[in-house]
Amino acid sequence: MTPRQVSRRVExxxxxxxxxxxxxxxxxxxxxxxxxxxQQRRRSALVGPLSQPRGIAxxxxxxVLHGVRGAPIEIPWEVAVPRAxxxxxxxxxxxRRILVPQPMNVQGIPCMSVPQALGLAVPTMxxxxxxxxxxxxxxxxxxxxxxxxxxxxTTAGRRGAATSRSWxxxxxxxxxxxxxxxxxxxxxxxxxxxxxxxLWTLAGGRWYRLDLAWVLPGGGLLIVEIDGREVHxxxxxLYEDRERQxxxxxxxxxxxxxxxxxxxxxxxxxxxxxLLKSRGxxxxxxxVDAAYDVERAGFFRKRRS
Length: 305
Hints:
This protein is of the alpha/beta class and 305 residues long. 39% of the residues lie in helices and 20% in strands. It folds into two domains: 3-173, no CATH class; 180-301, Trna Endonuclease, Chain: A, domain 1.
């Protein structure tokens, strides 16, 4: 396209000029609120590398492009350049003088690696978001235990490193969503950390995996499921959830369902804490190979497949 063709589209408001050389040509209509927020994060993550020739996405932007979930809505516009060469800022885009030895190509965009991006981003974040993103990277197989330790070590000397140092140890690779991470963290803060995460349960001859569970006195179980709006609002999912709930609820099991907002705000943790106190609960962490038979109200060791 010629410069004049681009200018005409900007003048007619068909396109918006984001920064020099980067134009917003209009966005597709997202199918859900979750998709809209993910779209907003991704668009912000792309501004930095698109604004600079050979620009490399770093920090939060790189993590979003890698597919790590749990990032805040607002992603800073920032970028690195090859060999950390000095470069003039592209308007509101921050050019970081960070050496990225081996950028990774993610759908055509040069990106910092996940371990390096986490080391850069975590000290700048809030605890719940930081731990959720570490969880997500581990769950998706993008961060090994050795890389986790390395990423934590790279934060030394950075602003926020001392505050965030303990967050790395709070991570758990079993969390399947940011909402589950928030639920685990908020319950731990309330003095009732889950006894089990992703607990395999046998009910009515079928296997189910529970988000969070607590062992009640007498062998009962408190089950907490974290519902994602974009999944559970589908009519097929409603039928599946009803069947699942009918199988899991028995005289010795209690099932509670919450949203990600409940988990993040502390509403879920407050209610769970009161319920557990009324039942005389005491912490009883389960082995990772433990499974629960709903009909027999007992635990057994599940063989690894």
